[in-house]
Amino acid sequence: MEDNSEVAAKEGLKDMSFKVGRGFHYRFKIEAIREGITMKDLLVRCFEAYIRSKSDKAS
Fold first, then answer.
1. Which of 1, 29, 30, 35 is the most exposed place for a label (fewest CB within 10 A)?
2. b/e per residue 22-48 (b: at least 16 CB within 10 A)
3. Which SUPFAM superfamilies match (predicted)?
4. CA–CA separation, 12 and 4 (whole Å)
5. Cβ(25)–Cβ(33) below 8 Å
6. Which range marks the domain in which residue 54 is found?
């Protein structure tokens, strides 16, 4: 599976703008810090895990 940077290099980047609650933002940011990654990378990992979990259920 290609990582997000490889995909972005091929496809280009697109902004995503949305609001989240302060508490969610804080918890999300703290988790990214704990993992030593950016919030964007954490979001990508979360989405990829979500997609994998859906395909696992379909199998």
1. 1
2. eeeeeeeeeebeeeeeeeeebebeeee
3. Ribbon-helix-helix
4. 11
5. no
6. 4-58
* Rounded CA separation 5/12 (Å): 10
pLDDT in tens, the chain (59 residues): 566 667 777 888 899 999 999 999 999 999 999 999 999 999 999 999 999 999 888 87
- What is the torsional sign of CA 33, 31, 16, 2? positive
Opening angle at CA 59, ends 42 and 50, nearest 5: 15
- The residue with tokens 């979990």 is 53
> In the structure encoding, which two tokens stand for residue 59, read together?
């199998």
Separation CA 56–CA 51 (nearest Å) = 9
Tokens of 55: 């395909």
Q: Give the separation between CA 42 and CA 9, rounded to whole angstroms.
A: 18
